[in-house]
Amino acid sequence: MITEPYSPEFPGMRKTVSLPSLNELFNTLIPWVTAAIHTLLQVHGRHFSVIAAADYPSLAVYDIIKDSDSEKHQLKPPQFLARHREDIQCLTRVSDSIFASASLDGAIILWSTNSFSAVKQYNYTDDYQKRNFPDRVWQILVMEERYLFASVSNGFKVFDVIASEDNQGCPKLLACYLNAHQLPITHMELIENQSALVTSSSDNTVRLWGSATNFTGSEKAGTKQSAMDKFIGRRPKSASGYPIIPNLLGELRGHTAPVMMVCNMLPHGLVTCGVDMLVLLWKVTMLYTKIRTSTFY
């Protein structure tokens, strides 16, 4: 694959400058075809394209081309985006112009849908532990096409992808809770118009996060509170320090084994499933203002 050193703000990363030659394509495809593809993402940049993520450090980009003579569509040979050091765990859309991927080592990369070049990087660690991957990112959620919620091992981090860089040259970490659970987070869900976060974990619990009080800052005429305003209890631009630590609003206990997923069924409740073969429906009270009690049906 044709590569060249990438810019200084992305240490340890390399940049693809063209499609690989046939030899390089063959050598790249050998490990790719043996990897399990787990995610497909449709994007529309210069062409309609499909991004494929697998248990492999590179993303594969398949352009969908329409033949002007036959009117048939076909997939072009893939272009490989080689930025990650470890296998990619998740891939998600951020906006029409940006998508994000995350890998075992914890690195989160933002990509342009037009150029397929990396534009920002988050949660990068030079001396990561290759064996246990303590900073592994399991899932990424997107709020308002601006904020990334990343589950990082037992906790979660919230990044502002539009905010300017801080003095250390690192992307702004808006909020985080590193030990949100005793064991790794298995799933996250934004609920109540994205103003609260629900996390499930291998520690058999489901927890709810957000602001303990409503956002009460003054508003100019015609402006509205955003979901992030409500989640952290104030406007991000008026926060005095980062990262903000969200409040634990409630905990749901009822599973006897790791909880694997949470489904938002509000106003009816939350549905969870676990390794214990149970599917549970929960009624969460007082959710809009602050969650103090959680009742199990």
Walk me through what this model shows.
The chain is mostly beta strands. It contains 2 helices and 23 strands. The protein is 6% helix and 43% strand. Strands 3, 4, 5, 6 and 7 form a 5-stranded antiparallel β-sheet that branches. The chain has a 4-stranded antiparallel β-sheet with strand order 8-9-10-11, with no helix packed on it. Mean pLDDT is 80; it is low at 1-20, 215-221 and 286-297. The longest helix has 13 residues, at 22-34. A hairpin with a 6-residue loop joins strand 5 (58-66) and strand 6.
Topology:
Elements (H helix, E strand, L loop, with lengths): L2 E3 L8 E3 L5 H13 L2 E8 L3 E7 L3 E9 L6 E3 L3 E4 L5 E6 L4 E6 L4 E5 L5 E5 L14 E7 L3 E6 L2 E6 L12 E5 L7 E7 L4 E6 L3 E6 L16 H6 L14 E7 L5 E6 L5 E5 L4 E6 L9 E3 L1
Antiparallel strand pairs: 1-2, 3-4, 4-5, 5-6, 5-7, 8-9, 9-10, 10-11, 12-13, 13-14, 14-15, 16-17, 17-18, 18-19, 20-21, 21-22, 22-23
**What is the average of the pLDDT values?**
80
Shape: globular
Helix content: under 10%
Broad structural category: mainly beta
Record field, number of beta strands: 23
H-E string: EEHEEEEEEEEEEEEEEEEHEEEEE
Number of helices in the DSSP assignment = 2
Low-pLDDT runs of 5+ residues are 1-20, 215-221, 286-297
| Rg, Å, rounded | 21 Å
